[in-house]
Prior knowledge:
By secondary structure, the protein is an alpha/beta fold. The chain is built from 14 helices and 15 strands. It is 47% helix and 20% strand. Helix 5 (169-181) packs parallel to helix 9 (274-281), helix 6 runs parallel beside helix 7 and helix 11 (326-364) runs antiparallel to helix 12. The model is unreliable at 1-22 (pLDDT under 50). The strands form four sheets. Strands 3-4-5-7-6 form a five-stranded mixed barrel. The chain has a five-stranded parallel sheet with strand order 9-8-10-11-12. A three-stranded antiparallel sheet has the order 13-14-15. The protein starts with 11 loop residues before the first strand and ends with a helix. The longest helix is centred in the last third of the chain and has 47 residues, at 368-414.
Amino acid sequence: MQLSLQFSDYPQKDTLSGTVAQNAPLQVTQLFKQLGDLLAQTQWTRQICVIGEVSAPKLSSSNHLFFNLKDQQSTLHCKLFYYSLRRYGRLPQEGERLLVYGSIMTYGPYGELYLKAERFSRDGQGELLVQLERLKEKLRSEHLFDDERKRPLPVFPRIIGLVTSENGMAFGDIKKIFRERAPHVKLWLAPALVQGTNASASMIEALRRLENMPEIDAIILGRGGGSREDLMAFNDENLVRAVASCPKPIVTAIGHDGDHSLCDLAADKVASTPTNAAEVILPSREQLLNEVRQHYRQVKSQLQHFWQMQHQALQVLRQRCQIVSPQQRIAQDTLFLNTLHTRLQQISQHLVQRWYHQLEIIQARPGWSALQERINSCRQETATWRCRAETAILDILSGQQILIEQYQRQLQVLDPHHSLKKGYALISDSQGAVISSIRQITSGQSLTVNFSDGQAAVHVEKITNISESSENQK
């Protein structure tokens, strides 16, 4: 309970001494000391009993318990020191209703009145907490908290709406994250009250304004930390329904990590703090670039692997074609024959040159005339062998040429296009398989007829077997 003091210029009577102080100002410390003395002398403030609901219980490092005792309209700070607290096995819990006995005291440094608790007794669960649980179950039964209603956040938002106090720290924290992570994304503030009696209505109005702006991609609803009563506006039924019915995705960031409200249950995404809300809703530029680079590397690797596999398959097909191709076999045989012909010519020339050289040596020797007849005989024999060799080579070449012509005629006979030019046709189904029998087709089937100069699509209307047709003619 905070004190709000106003001083006037009129003389005030000192209630302790009975004298009137004419324009004698008091220091703040003196005022609180006199108030403390006054409360100590007042009988009803020294031993009172206060009933209320516990909020924000906190155990200090020295094991003293600090908590608030509140009702629908007011809040009273309470302190329960360790020597009084140790007699209890269980500490007061949030929302618990207590009867607290103690004395009203003043605390000058913070300018407050507080209840110095000496003992307490439990009076069941607090009414506010009971009402909150009833409201939660009511909204849950209407499926306002179902996961199926949650909508995904935009991947690349352009404008984000913000509902919070324009003077709060949450607004500054969110702006900072926007500048650091995504300065290209705009932040549109719809200022609203975030605590107090009119807070829920103010936030509903701000949400409605952002809903009617088509350029808004998503909305952040939040505020900084506070006590449980400070955050009660986010448990308002009308505000929860407004969050659930909002056509745009909503991220709530109410208080700090550990604070929970009904708006969190109705929102599409819940962040622990306002800073975390900005991080959740904004894609980091570095993160997006890293994802793009990673996808690029994956696609590039897959394409390289695909092309390598296709290249290897093409090489295998080429090798197979070279092994079984008649043209390749003919080309190899022709090259072999040309090589043999060249070698025979070289050998013949070498032999002739050698024989002429030996002949010159013999002619230089005495008795040449006696060998003349023998030389002539050798010449005739050489001519004969040369003629035979050339004849044999020509015969071999002629035989190979005939063999080549036979291969060419066989290739022409086996060429499907050669048959198509004679009036025949090649029939295939929709998968490209060749049809060679009426057993491969059915009535109503679509076929393709291949001619030498084109194709024609046909539709089977009737199938007649040759044997059946012959019997019908007989």
